[in-house]
Request: fold
Amino acid sequence: MRSLFEVPIIAAAEEALLLARRDLRTFWASTLVGLPDLGGVGLSDWRVGQTDVDLHCDEIIRNALAKVLPEVEIVSEESIPRTSRPTGFCFLIDPVDATHNASAGYPAFTSCVALYDGDRYIFGWVYDIGRDVIYSAASKQGAYLQSSIMLKRLRVKADAPLERMAVSVLRTRVLTGRMTRIISESGKLRISSCSSLDMCLIAAGTLDAFVDLNEPGHERTCDIAAASVILQEAGGNIFTTMGSQRQLLPPGLEAVHDYQSLIAAPSLVGASNFIL
Reply:
């Protein structure tokens, strides 16, 4: 695998994250042997919100970034983030998205890193650990899927009617009329419980939409910032359940607590199948 983008700080971040990918891969290869009985690695405690594995993956990513870009601030879901707005470049990390999947041995969990600059996220990196592939994108430079043997430019699918859409949902405990319609009328229905991966799969044209219609919802900026850059560079976008564009918060305390619902789709036309 190699760096793809020309902007110096993004190229440096890619270099660091390729090192992190190596160490994450080594860690997971040893940790996942013998699933679902993981013994003392801490994954069995996923319900408390922070596990030993989250912390270990956080340390791997932090160390890799700090080695290459020591001057850039890092905010992580697993640490106490700053409350003030970043004044320069800042990384936002979600070291393990879908810890429950990882604890159960279900191969849908990721590590995510987004780079923030000024007033927006300009780089997104999502490592699909189970398949050992990297989704990445930089602002105005496109989105890509990369493995050790291939490199592919990503584009979303064209809009389709609901009956031809492959839709991933986040389970809701209250079946509203709208949710019942999605379940009954979608061409294909998926539930992976990993929002970052689902959004990358929309970017790749594998899925048509991902929806979390719960109130207030489960998707925080730290969960979706990296995948949002990838989806947008592939031609898609993220919306609220009312149809406006979902806004992401800067790295900080609020970015790990802004639980909201979400519709991710190639366009507002596709998202209209799920809007109130």
About this structure: DSSP finds seven helices and twelve strands in the chain. The chain has two domains: 8-153, 162-271. The helical segments are 8-31, 52-68, 99-104, 177-185, 195-203, 221-233, 268-271. Residues 38-48 have pLDDT under 50 and may be disordered.
